[in-house]
Design brief:
The chain has 165 residues and is an all-alpha fold. The protein has 7 helices and no strands.
């Protein structure tokens, strides 16, 4: 049941270009749950020779199977233009690298805008602190979702600075 639910996330949030960071995050969640994420991180083992151990042979065929499942998830969760561009790719990792190359600039500009919004955010006198804090938390979440690593102390400093006059 969880498996079907998780894969439905990809169907509902197809990669269109402007949603790359969210699409990748959702894809990695599904692949992690299904134990296929490693094909995006590790090279394919060498094709086993006839006299190789069954363990080495199993590692190869397991990787090939996981790669095909990952590739299918990726292709099924893209719009038709991106599918057409990637239909000749046999390796899921190659697809991911190409997509990252295509959309990495988008993530950088979104990250910069989120950090800029966070730095410029100031509490307005007379407005509830709760509303301001929700805004700040939203900016922090946006920055972190685009691979910005802001440690807890820096987050607290930013929050206190946003509350000062």
């Amino acid at each position: 049941m969880a498996q079907g639910f998780l894969s439905s996330i990809l169907n509902q949030n197809k990669l269109t270009g402007d949603n790359f960071a969210d699409w990748k995050k959702n894809l990695l969640i599904v692949l992690s749950f299904e134990k296929h994420k490693y094909v995006l991180e590790k090279d394919c083992p060498l094709v086993p020779k006839e006299n190789v151990s069954s363990e080495e042979s199993m590692a190869f065929y397991s990787w090939v199977n996981s790669n095909e499942i990952t590739r299918c998830y990726m292709m099924a969760s893209m719009n038709s233009v991106l599918q057409k561009q990637h239909e000749g790719y046999l390796n899921a990792r190659d697809i991911m690298h190409n997509i990252e190359d295509m959309f990495s600039g988008q993530s950088v500009s979104i990250h910069q805008a989120a950090v800029r919004n966070l730095m410029n955010c100031k509490h307005k006198l007379g407005t509830p602190i709760k509303d301001h804090m929700l805004t700040v938390i939203g900016y922090l979440a946006e920055a972190q979702s685009h691979e910005s690593e802001i440690d807890a102390n820096t987050q607290m400093e930013m929050i206190f600075e946003s509350l000062s006059k």
